[in-house]
Amino acid sequence: MSGAPAVDGAPATAVPGWAVWSLRGLVLAVTLLVLAQPVLAGLFVTGDVGMLGLHGAIASFLAALVFFQVVAAILVWRPGRGPAWPIGASVAGFVLVEAQSAAGYARAVALHIPLGVLLFGLSVALLIAVWSPGVRRRRPRRGAER
Questions:
Q1: 29 Cα distance to chain centroid
Q2: Can you tell me the distance from the alpha carbon of 5 to that of 104, in angstroms, rounded to the nearest whole number?
Q3: What residues contact 92, with CB distance under 8 A and at least 6 apart?
Q4: Per-residue pLDDT tens for 4-19?
Q5: 69-108 tens-digit pLDDT
């Protein structure tokens, strides 16, 4: 590590905590809601028709939450000088949530279920990745190595 002073208990080579924790919190919330969706769908299929409305409402909320997740990923990357890969993963999640919602509202179950499985896998993988120490490492400034 460099001899740079620590800020907020983290070394100066780390992405600011507010940026990382915003992204981690949003990814955690998205993952928990994604995990709740098949439960609600299952309850609907077993006869609790009110769960379909909640399933749709959570889908709409998920779209907004994933949008804010994209913003948080950009904040980790740009002002925080962290890795850029969370942006791509978050944008993929946003597109997937929108496609999933469209398939659900169109009652295209043959597409809706596989997209849900893919969204589940992406959410869990992203959750594991953003909790890894690598997301806190800063990229070097341009020209700093010259």
A1: 8
A2: 51
A3: 122
A4: 444 455 556 788 999 9
A5: 999 999 999 988 899 999 999 999 999 999 999 999 999 9
